[in-house]
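Feature request, filed as a ticket because there's no other form

It would be nice if the structure record came with a short human-readable summary line next to the tokens. Right now we just get the raw output. Example of a typical job, pasted below so the devs can see what we mean:
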Amino acid sequence: MTERESELLREFKGKLDKLIDQYLRVKSENQLLIEENSQLKEQIRFLGMGNEELLKQREDLKFAKSLLGADQDSHGAKLKINRIVREIDNCIALLNK
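Raw output as currently delivered:
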């Protein structure tokens, strides 16, 4: 092998080593990002469940308030009671089949 070929081979090996190091660094960073993404998805799911619970509690409070005598909310309470009664009737009808 000539000196020029040896020099080219050393340059190639050096560049290849740099490329491998960069690949390993990026691979490690990618793994960390995948883990962080998974944690954030879990956090979003957890917060979504909490949000649903808070919305349900809000609706329950509005319903309770309407039953306590607020005139403008009494119409909403009657509608909700009627909806609940219809759902119960549907359940009974399904059970009777």
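Something like this underneath would help us a lot:
Helices lie at 3-67, 71-96.
The two ends are 91 Å apart (CA to CA).
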